[in-house]
């Protein structure tokens, strides 16, 4: 017997649930890529992406996933042999650093760990020791989707500034843009990147990079650039060149609709929604963890992200069994523990097109699974989430 008929719900951290409006926006013929309509679509999207990053700098759209946008960001500002300082807080900054190494950069990892955020004072100390300024770029993620860590990007920016070091500050916002505050210019970020398929509720396949004046200046002398990623190849008024070829028309229709939905809701409201749903998820996990099997991966409460919660399982309990039950019996797909947490955790995504019933449904299903599989857990997780939202969401 199952109770899974109905719409399967994706509670994985990307691709996320797409709004019906976004799906429908793609259900139309392509348009002439040389038309005025196409030009306007490009211009409004580039302007809106810069606004999402909160920068007066330039934005670029690539037909690529997040890995592509990583490469775009690196290739424009680095030269072979340049040193990149990677700030570890899970898997994704390390992945970005691996890309840099394969592209010919020298990579140093500022050791962190999977259970905590980057410590800004450690960044400052490391940069102060680099008296020769051999480090050319510092890379970090706002949210690490594997560990569930949320880094304080503003504080790291201040630490870099305090060190007096000229390295470019580069930030990955794939799992956070549109879900929580991000202030590229105010926080002193030179290059930011993101992708379409997480908080931005659009199909996978678009990568975004924004660059400030300093980054654009560095680009002039950098030698890793290749034609597809190059910012300078995308200059000028010709729309065709802005995509280095044919525009991904349907993905752009989808993105336009998704950003319109975000604007309708109001960005601040979207941030607040993520914060409420993130905390509701944490209330449930906190209750469950009293059974001594489940727990938060991120030790410090203030470092847990509002877009994904990574839940560890110990004492020989296999998260794969729980995930399988949720999917096969109840139609909810949870995220798998990845990297260092492979086989030891599952993840609940709460990013993008998510509301109270989606989150509470997911938490309810996890609770059903915990009961059915007789996994020890504290009672009242779902109730705690419901109570929290009842207190916080005003009449
Ligand atoms: C998903 C993700 C990526 C990689 O994006 P892909 O589209 O899968 O290439 C990079 N960084 C973060 C923080 C992510 O969550």
UniProtKB/TrEMBL annotation:
It holds the Pfam family Aminotran_5. Its EC number is 2.6.1.44, 2.6.1.45, 2.6.1.51. This is Alanine-glyoxylate transaminase/serine-glyoxylate transaminase/serine-pyruvate transaminase. Its cofactor is pyridoxal 5'-phosphate. InterPro entries: Aminotrans_V_dom, Aminotrans_V_PyrdxlP_BS, PyrdxlP-dep_Trfase, PyrdxlP-dep_Trfase_major, PyrdxlP-dep_Trfase_small, SP_NH2Trfase/AEP_transaminase. PROSITE patterns: AA_TRANSFER_CLASS_5. GO terms for molecular function: alanine-glyoxylate transaminase activity; L-serine-glyoxylate transaminase activity; L-serine-pyruvate transaminase activity. Keywords: Aminotransferase, Pyridoxal phosphate, Transferase. Residues 23-337 form the Aminotransferase class V domain. Belongs to the class-V pyridoxal-phosphate-dependent aminotransferase family. It comes from the Bacteria.
